[in-house]
């Protein structure tokens, strides 16, 4: 047995590791920024300009954050009876890697928009995206949490 019993949910599926959840939160950062900017009425546009200098990139970020939000939702819906949810979640690793690569390219484009000017925020985000991509690619736990277990039904 590779994992302890606490690592499985009540349906026999391996729970997603905390680092995967945090990475999905990073990939959905456009949604977080959008909600924070909407909640702060006076400085909302200033917050959006700092994080997303080109507002079209915000909309692209919102679209690219949808797969992460969908995976967060779908991974909690897995049961032996929901074969469709299990099949959708089984595509989680390649979808997460593709979304991470797209976010990395988007962050590179933000650097291009600033004419190569260094920004701590962009540097940290790009470093975290790189680490998250390497983690998802190499982690056996992540691969196992997306795998559909062979569950005996009576």
TrEMBL record:
Lineage: Bacteria, Pseudomonadati, Pseudomonadota, Gammaproteobacteria, Vibrionales
The keyword Membrane appears for this protein: yes
Highest taxon above the source species: Bacteria
Protein name: DUF2919 domain-containing protein
Annotated transmembrane regions: 12-37, 57-75, 95-112, 118-137
Keywords: Membrane, Transmembrane, Transmembrane helix
């Amino acid at each position: 047995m590779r994992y302890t019993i606490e690592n499985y949910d009540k349906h026999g599926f391996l729970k997603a590791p905390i680092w995967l959840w945090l990475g999905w939160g990073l990939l959905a950062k456009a949604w977080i920024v959008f909600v924070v900017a909407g909640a702060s009425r006076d400085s909302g546009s200033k917050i959006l300009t700092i994080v997303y200098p080109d507002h079209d990139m915000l909309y692209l970020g919102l679209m690219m954050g949808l797969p992460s939000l969908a995976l967060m939702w779908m991974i909690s819906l897995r049961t032996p009876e929901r074969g469709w949810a299990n099949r959708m979640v089984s595509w989680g690793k390649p979808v997460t890697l593709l979304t991470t690569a797209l976010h990395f390219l988007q962050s590179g484009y933000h650097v291009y928009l600033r004419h190569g000017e260094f920004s701590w925020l962009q540097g940290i985000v790009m470093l975290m995206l790189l680490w998250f991509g390497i983690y998802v690619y190499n982690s056996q736990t992540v691969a196992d949490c997306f795998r559909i277990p062979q569950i005996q039904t009576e």
